[in-house]
Amino acid sequence: MHSTILALALTFAALALGVTPADAITIYPIDRAQILAGSRFDLKIEFDGVVGAADAKVTIDGADLSTALGRTATFVERENGVAASALILRDVTLAKPGRYAVVASDGKIVRSVSWEVYATGSRRARNVILFIGDGMAAAHRTAARILTAGITEGKYHGGLAMDAMTNMALLGTAGVDSIITDSANSASAYTTGHKSSVNALGVYADRTPDTLDDPRVETLTSLVKRAANMAVGVVTNTEVEDATPAAMVAHTRRRSDYDPIVGMFHDSGVDVLMGGGAAHFLPKSAPGSRRKDDVDYVAKFRAAGYSIVTTDRELKSATADPATRKLLGLFHPSNMDGVLDRKFLKQGTVTSFPEQPDLVDMVKTALAVLSRHDNGFVLMVESGLIDKYSHPLDWERAVMDTIMLDRAVAAAKEFVATRNDTLILVTADHTHGLSLAGTVDDAVKSPEMRDKVGVYEKAGFPNYPPANDEGYPPRLDVSRRLAIFFSVFPDYYETFRPKLDGPFVPAVVGPDKSYIANDKYKDTPGAVLRVGNLPRSAPQGVHSGEDVVLTATGPGADRVRGFLDNTEVFRIIVDALGLGAPAAQ
Ligand SMILES: [Zn+2]
Description:
Elements: H1 3-16, E1 26-28, E2 34-36, E3 41-46, E4 57-60, E5 63-64, H2 65-69, E6 74-76, E7 86-92, E8 98-105, E9 110-118, E10 127-133, H3 138-149, E11 151-152, E12 155-156, E13 167-172, H4 183-192, H5 220-228, E14 231-239, H6 243-246, H7 258-268, E15 272-276, H8 297-303, E16 307-309, H9 312-320, E17 327-330, H10 339-345, H11 359-370, E18 377-383, H12 385-390, H13 395-416, E19 422-428, E20 431-432, E21 434-441, E22 453-454, E23 480-486, E24 492-494, E25 507-509, E26 515-517, E27 528-530, E28 543-544, E29 548-553, E30 561-565, H14 567-576
Parallel strand pairs: 2-9, 10-18, 10-19, 13-30, 14-15, 14-18, 15-17, 16-17
Antiparallel strand pairs: 1-3, 3-7, 4-5, 4-8, 6-7, 8-9, 11-12, 13-29, 19-29, 20-28, 21-22, 21-23, 24-27, 25-26
Helix pairs in contact: 3-13, 4-14, 9-11, 11-13
The structure holds zinc ion.
């Protein structure tokens, strides 16, 4: 083929595939964005260089931008930190469902994207409860089911509350920038219906260095408050300003913008907010504060009518008061302690913070307070330490917190049992690479622990004692325990045993700043060095890109089947709540 014709053919092929050359114009929302009719979003066009104001043109379905959206975009000749021009139009809406062709030009290059604006049916659910097991993979679920229900002759003696639901689907978790997601852009997909990039919440990540100026998309919290005057609750056992809970309210390109995120929670009008992370609510002059300014957000929340609680006892007495309609519970300066340390080992920070409530109690009290509101509620619940224990390859702690998530789901199912008006969704935001390979049997005689790993018929069944009345096995260091191994890791010593002296620290910084196996576990009898398969800059394991499981029950759950993209979770929620019904706009 003649080279010019070949080049042309390649260009057309690239256009057909939606591939854009490096010097193209960028349009936000992105190509193939799905936008809820009537929801707010910012439109941004980034030109590759400095262009003349008269040359920068955008049309929507052939009509000039100001005609199509009712307002004129702001032209920025040179964006801060970028020697290039942009057009920005904030807080626009498209009310009419359908496909929209957006075409931008700088006088030389033309770029076009297509958006789908969708409506919803009328409201079918009064309430929605979204549970997120952060980082929860299939192996966490299976291990939780084995430990909580027990299994003999291949049959479980019971099951998980999150399994016993009418509908199930697999969710894809990839983001705008990568096949691997973090908790920010994945939770943001659930709460906005838009894909985003690693570390970004409620925005499309633009090119400017300012993390708070990126083009925004509306959060579920804003939508349900604006369109339906509903109550909103956010419950986690991590810091409340951490990525997953923050996705309910935040707009930032950088999830670590903790101080601004606390302000966004305050401004959002969220009715119930519970978890750790108190350090970013306190003015910097206060002991233990991690704020960079002197704003006292505890005082600001109190002034806005919130009951403030910091212990389990205070939580229960505030909830018992029927006048409590707004509740801020901050039970830890940082992340709360997980089940194994809090309930069994009394380790971690439990001696300093002995009155941390359980996630199950937080969910029960959130449901009680949110039920006092007249127009229904949306509650997001995160069991966040499943992820935080899976990063350092501490699967036992992660599985105990998976059981805790399941007990919280059971409490929610009990709450909705007598009423068919609440959609419950249970999912993860991404997975970790861990697998159940069999059992580790101490009865096998060998100095090497790897010889005790039983696979296939030699795995048999583990001998954990039956779960207590809260669903937890009272002992994990049994003689035939689950053999669960991670697939991505730094150099570390595999001990084949639960870490009862504190959460696992697989690797530590070595003399040349790269991570090396933590010597602390070297002399554990039978420990083997696993040479890492991650860059030496990685201190611990990482997220993986497999699908996550979504189960659901209640009005609207019928759409949960087959394979869905993570943005569909938002669509299922807004559809159940009728937020894009013609009457709702
Ligand atoms: Zn993580």
